[in-house]
Amino acid sequence: MPLSELFDTPAVKSPFISSGNLADEERLVHFPATTRVHAGLLNAMLERGQDLIVVTPSDRAEFLHLHALEALFGPGVDGRNAVFLLSSNTEFRERFRQLAPASMRPPHDKSRYAREETPIANVTKDGSLATVTKNLNYPDKPARFLFSYTSTRIPSDDVGDRVRCVIYDDSVKYDEERLLRLLKWKQRNDVPAIVYFTSNPTSDLVEKLRGRAFLWTWPPRLLSAVVESDRDNGYEWIGTDEEVSPTTHRAQVVAKREQNRVSGLSIDVHTCGDGDLLTALKRANDRRARFEYLARELDADILKRGQQLVRYTLGSFRELLTPLDVADFHARRTTISSRLAQLGRFAGRIASDPEANPATGTFRDVVSALEELEELWDDVPASDKKQGVLVDNLLYGALDRGDSISVVTATESQQQALKTFLQSEHAALYRDLGDDLSIHDTHSIRSADPTDHVVLYGALRWGDRGLLRTAVATDAIVLAYPIEMGLLHSQVDALEDSFESIADTKFWNVIDNLTRIATDEPADVERVNIDLPEYEEPSTSDLGEDISVDDAEGEDLSEIVRGYETDYEDSEDFDPTEYETSSTHQTTTSGGRTETDCLDVHFDDGLSMHLRKGTEIYTVREGHDKLFKKNASRLKEHDVVVHLEDTDEMRDQLYALIRERGDVGLYYYANLWKVNLEAALEKTGDDLDDFVEKMEQQGLDKNRGTYERWYEMEVHRTRSKKSFWAIADAYDLDGVKENFSQVWNAVQEMETIYSRLKKALRQTALRSAANGTLDDVMLSESPDIRLSDFEIGKYLFRLNIQSIEEGVEAKSSQIGRLRGF
Question: Which residues share a beta bridge with 235?
Answer without folding.
Answer: none
